Amino acid sequence: MAYQASIVSLTQESPLPVQLQAGVRMLDIRTRHYRDAFPIHHGAEYLHANFTDVVRAVAAFLAAHPRESVLMRLKEEHTPAENTRTYEQTLNWYINDNPDTRDLLRDHLWRPPAGYDGRIPTLGETRGRVVILQDFGSGNAYGPRWSGDRMDVQDDYQLATLFHIPQKWNAARTQFEQANPGTPGILYVNHLSASGGALPKSIAYGALGVTGMNERALTYLAAGNVRRTGVVVADFPGPDLVNTIIAHNS
Question: Which of 17, 78, 154, 185 registers the highest number of CB atoms within 10 A of its CB?
Answer without folding.
Answer: 154
